[in-house]
Design a protein that fits this description.
The protein is of the alpha+beta class. The protein has one domain: PAS domain (Beta-Lactamase, 2-Layer Sandwich), CATH 3.30.450. Helix content is 26%, strand content 27%. It is built from 3 helices and 6 strands. It has a 6-stranded antiparallel β-sheet with strand order 1-4-5-6-2-3, with helices on both faces. It starts with 5 loop residues before the first strand and ends with a strand.
Length: 159
């Protein structure tokens, strides 16, 4: 079963996503994309359980999950902190689910970096028994001391 990600053209009607989007807008000031040093986790403290920080290298299709919130661990059934495109999901995941998860992440991260703008998305959950639920989220690009996008903030909620 192949599951697709749906990209939304506008901010979804979720207060949590709107709050992080507004915060990202406020720290970018006159820049196209804000720098990682301007991002303060304390400012979005209530969203940290649903937040992931992902280091991206789109030219090589590589990424590494730097932070994976506790609510995301519950949603995905595992801690993905420190995981890369080579070991995104645990060994117990079905092969099709692992491949689908990797493809979805690659698609969302690539779009975020290429557009250098917020990306809103939704997709059915991949875990067996939970596919009736929808994962809604936002990805926000960050630079890291240069003009090149180096990280993506990903906020996700199940609805």
């Amino acid at each position: 079963m192949t599951i697709k990600v749906t990209f939304l053209n506008e901010l979804p009607d979720l207060l949590e996503i709107n709050e992080l989007h507004d915060y990202w807008q406020s720290i970018r000031e006159d820049q196209c994309v804000p720098d990682r040093r301007d991002f303060s986790p304390v400012s979005v403290k209530r969203h940290l359980p649903n937040l992931a920080v992902i280091e991206v290298h789109i030219d090589t299709k590589a990424f590494e999950v730097r932070l994976f919130g506790t609510a995301l661990m519950e949603i995905f059934g595992e801690d993905r902190t420190g995981r890369t495109q080579d070991n995104l999901t645990g060994k117990s995941a079905e092969e099709a689910v692992k491949e689908n998860a990797l493809n979805l992440w690659q698609e969302v991260l690539t779009k975020t970096v290429r557009e250098a703008a917020p990306v809103f998305f939704e997709t059915p959950r991949l875990r067996t028994g939970y596919r009736h639920q929808t994962l809604k989220g936002i990805c926000l690009p960050l630079t890291n001391g240069s003009s090149k996008i180096a990280q993506v903030l990903a906020l996700m909620y199940v609805r």
